[in-house]
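Input record, target 12 of the design panel.
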C-alpha cells in the first residue's frame, strides 16, 4: 500500500483529491490538512507521498516543499500555478513531481505511483521547463532511466540493454516509454541526441 497525504487549502479540491485517493485499491490515505503546520502536527512517519498545493496560508511555495521534504516525505506538487519559476523552484526545494490542477484523477494517481516507486513525474507540458533549465534532463529521469538512455545512445538494441541491466525486454520498453513521456522525445535518434547533449553517455 502507498501511504499518501494531502495538503490543500481549497475545501472542495481537497475533498475531491482525498476521494480519488481513497477509491484507489493500492493507496492508504494519510493526513489531509489545509496547511503545512496542520500536516506537521499529525507527526506522520517519514516515507509518505504528499500531494501539496503551493499557494497555502503561512508556509507556502518552495518553502512548503522544502519543509515537507525535510520531514522525509516525497512531494508531488499539484498547483494552479505552473509557470517555469514555480516548477523549477519546487524542484530545487525537493519536489519529486509536479502537475497543474487541470490534471484529472488518473493523472494524480499515476504520478503518486511513479513517485512511490522512486521515480519522478512531471506532466509533459511542465517537463519542458525542466529540460530547458540549467539542471537539464538529469533532474527529470531516475538513475535506471538514465542508464537505459545511455545504453540506447551507445547504439544498443532493447535486447542488449535488457541483458546489460539484467532486466527483461519488457521492462526496458517500459523505461523507454517513461523517458519519452518525460522528455517529449519519441524517436530513438531524438533520444540519442538528447543523451549526447546532456552528457548521459
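The sequence produced for target 12 reads:
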Amino acid at each position: 500500500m502507498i501511504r499518501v497525504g494531502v495538503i490543500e487549502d481549497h475545501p472542495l479540491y481537497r475533498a475531491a483529491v482525498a476521494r480519488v485517493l481513497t477509491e484507489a485499491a493500492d493507496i492508504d490515505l494519510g493526513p489531509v490538512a489545509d496547511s503545512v503546520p496542520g500536516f506537521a502536527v499529525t507527526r506522520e512517519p517519514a516515507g509518505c507521498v504528499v500531494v501539496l498545493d503551493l499557494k497555502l496560508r503561512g508556509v507556502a511555495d518552495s518553502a512548503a516543499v522544502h519543509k515537507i521534504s525535510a520531514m522525509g516525505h516525497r512531494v508531488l506538487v499539484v498547483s494552479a500555478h505552473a509557470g517555469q519559476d514555480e516548477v523549477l523552484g519546487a524542484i530545487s526545494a525537493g519536489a519529486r513531481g509536479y502537475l497543474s490542477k487541470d490534471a484529472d484523477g488518473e493523472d494524480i494517481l499515476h504520478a503518486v505511483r511513479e513517485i512511490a516507486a522512486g521515480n519522478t513525474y512531471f506532466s509533459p507540458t511542465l517537463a519542458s521547463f525542466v529540460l530547458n533549465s540549467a539542471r537539464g534532463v538529469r533532474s527529470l529521469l531516475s538513475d535506471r532511466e538514465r542508464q537505459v538512455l545511455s545504453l540506447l545512445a551507445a547504439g544498443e538494441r532493447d535486447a542488449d540493454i535488457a541483458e546489460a541491466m539484467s532486466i527483461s525486454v519488457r521492462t526496458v520498453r517500459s523505461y523507454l516509454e517513461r523517458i519519452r513521456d518525460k522528455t517529449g522525445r519519441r524517436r530513438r535518434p531524438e533520444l540519442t541526441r538528447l543523451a549526447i547533449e546532456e552528457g548521459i553517455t
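The chain has ten helices and six strands.
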